[in-house]
Specification:
Elements (H helix, E strand, L loop, with lengths): L11 H18 L27 H6 L6 H4 L2
Length: 74
Amino acid sequence: MAESGWHGGALDAHRFLWLDAVRREADALGAAWAYWGYANPHGMSLMSPDETRRPDRIALIALGLAEDPVSTGN
């Protein structure tokens, strides 16, 4: 696995698909992974870029760090 970056806004669906695919591939290969973008204005963060700094549910679900309410039926 290597570092990658993102510049510019990303659609939520695209962010989810990319993060989910990379995380699943790393898991399948038994590769360790880390997420370094905790808060940035470019759309690839674990926290919202506004003043609320709330967790980004899309990123957390894609990374397997939160449950997806759709897949769990909630």
